Amino acid sequence: ATQKLLLLPGDGIGVEVMAEVKRLIAFLNKTGLTAFETEEDLVGGAAYDAHGKAISDAAMGLAQAADAVMFGAVGGPKWADVPYAARPEAGLLRLRKDLGLFANLRPAVCYPALADASSLKRELVEGLDIMIVRELTGGVYFGEPKEIVTLENGEKRAVDTQVYTTHEIERIARVAFDLAKVRGNLVHSSEKHNVMKSGVLWKQVVTAVHKAEYPEVKLEHILADNCGMQLVRTPKQFDVIVCDNLFGDMLSDVAAMLTGSLGMLPSASLGATDPTTGKRKAMYEPVHGSAPDIAGRGLANPIATLASFGMALRYSFGLAEAADRLDAAIAAALDEGLRTKDIASAGQNAVSTSEMGSAVLKA
Ligand code: NAI
Ligand code: MG
């Protein structure tokens, strides 16, 4: 059966790193391992230039119909003054919202060849492989009321509201437990039930889902502040960490720094599974942006995007072995000493985006 993939390269280096994914797809299709049918459309500033909005309804239709979306990056100084509703980031936000992508997966993997680029000592991070599962559509970033009001005495009062329902916690917990089953079989659920009602409910619901559906997976509860501390103390104790939107935002950035460069970090965002088709909406993208400072010069590191495609192979297309081989190929290219500028050490010769892509492809 064909597998439908929508490519949205976007702006800046998004276009350059996506080109390496296209070469990989062409190779995989040629081997007969996959039968990807790809479509490509505009998003971000490129879509604004063509249609006056950050993503067209036609492109949204393609995203809805695809088995997975590969997203590059959007934005750049060229679009600094476009109307707010049409700013490049609006394309990304609409994709997340309309596809219902409630689970954000941010792996933090430390390739041995790059262990010295971590903010921690080599022995603490070498071989690190953590998955942070962040709830993406609820919590304090979206809860109502959300306002700044002026009080009678002239003082101002700002309000953000943390809201979570049983359903929202159950579905993110299932994503975490399902991942743990195919990884290290361990979930840390991170919240602050000591000071937050949403933390109390979070802990109760995760415990109930665990007991009823995943008793074979090991579950630990950890307060979010302690989780931050443990991540920089002994990060290899973790396998999967599940947390709300706010704590996940912070913990995933902490974990990112354990691994080295922004150019190495992939991500996935997953939606609900359709009960009739068994399929789930998903979008895969590098964590980095469009890097206007290096765009158009073949300097970008394609690994974050290639690894994001690896997550698509694993989580949308059931091709775990191919995904493992892609990860091994990335590690092999790094072991050979190939470095793009962002991960090269001082004085080291850097390779181009396509040279790195070729080395991964060859491996
Ligand atoms: P950025 O991630 O684009 O760049 C930050 C720094 O990291 C730059 O020095 C850049 O050269 C470097 N860098 C990033 N990715 C790299 C790669 N693959 N290889 C080598 N070096 C890399 O973030 P910045 O500069 O804050 O934002 C630039 C534009 O990107 C802005 O318009 C911003 O709004 C947008 N952006 C878009 C995102 C997305 O599409 N998901 C995420 C973050 C920013
Ligand atoms: Mg962040």
Write a concise synopsis of the structure shown.
The chain has 363 residues and is an alpha/beta fold. The chain is 40% helix and 20% strand. Helix 8 (224-233) packs parallel to helix 9 (245-257) and helix 10 (303-315) runs antiparallel to helix 11.
Structure, described:
By secondary structure, the protein is of the alpha/beta class. The chain folds into 2 domains: 1-107 and 263-363, Isopropylmalate Dehydrogenase, CATH 3.40.718; 129-257, Isopropylmalate Dehydrogenase (3-Layer(aba) Sandwich). Helix content is 40%, strand content 20%. It is built from 12 helices and 12 strands. The protein has helices spanning 13-31, 45-51, 57-65, 89-98, 122-125, 166-181, 197-213, 224-233, 245-257, 303-315, 320-335, 353-362; strands spanning 3-10, 36-40, 68-73, 103-109, 129-135, 147-150, 156-159, 186-191, 218-223, 240-243, 266-273, 280-286. The chain has a 10-stranded mixed sheet with strand order 2-1-3-12-11-4-5-10-8-9, sandwiched between helices. A two-stranded antiparallel sheet has the order 6-7. α6 crosses α7 (197-213) and α8 (224-233) packs parallel to α9 (245-257). The longest helix is centred in the N-terminal third of the chain and has 19 residues, at 13-31. The mean pLDDT is 95. It binds 1,4-dihydronicotinamide adenine dinucleotide (NAI) and magnesium ion. Residues 249, 253 line the site of magnesium ion (MG).
What does the secondary structure layout of this molecule look like, with pairings?
Blueprint: E1 3-10, H1 13-31, E2 36-40, H2 45-51, H3 57-65, E3 68-73, H4 89-98, E4 103-109, H5 122-125, E5 129-135, E6 147-150, E7 156-159, H6 166-181, E8 186-191, H7 197-213, E9 218-223, H8 224-233, E10 240-243, H9 245-257, E11 266-273, E12 280-286, H10 303-315, H11 320-335, H12 353-362
Parallel strand pairs: 1-2, 1-3, 3-12, 5-10, 8-9, 8-10
Antiparallel strand pairs: 4-5, 4-11, 6-7, 11-12
The structure holds 1,4-dihydronicotinamide adenine dinucleotide and magnesium ion.
